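Re-run with default settings, no changes from the original entry. Doing this only to confirm the output is reproducible before filing.
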Amino acid sequence: MPTNNVLLDTHVLIWLMNGDNKLSKESQKVIEHARKNGNIFISAISVWEVGMLEQKQRIILNKPCLEWIKGSLQYGIRLLALTPEIAIESCQLPRYSAGDPADRIIIATARIESLVLLTCDERILAYGNQKLVLTMNAGNSFDIAG
């Protein structure tokens, strides 16, 4: 059954917009269904993360970074702001000890906005298995946890 409201982890956004084949067929279907219904989102921190990854030359984009980001938004991906609720939630995630602020903000965004977080990050997927956030593996296995 397709998931209606999806939050893309930063690496999933990059793979999607660059046409990378790392996304499973199932997650591609979920993304397309959510996109057609206007229910596909990224956190504002993902914009910053893409900018930092490009600046550090850890990713190579096919166009200037800002233009690439705007293109993803024109594709139908909706940008969610970093609200005070999300910021505070990111500091208070129950049973989550990893320190990466971007991951914490993305998880908090999914929790506050009641979205399924599409990711391949093993730590985030394990957190989803604790039923503390809804997650879906964007890779080869199709699994919704949380």
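The chain has one domain: 6-145. The beta strands are 6-8, 40-43, 78-80, 116-119, 135-137, 144-145.
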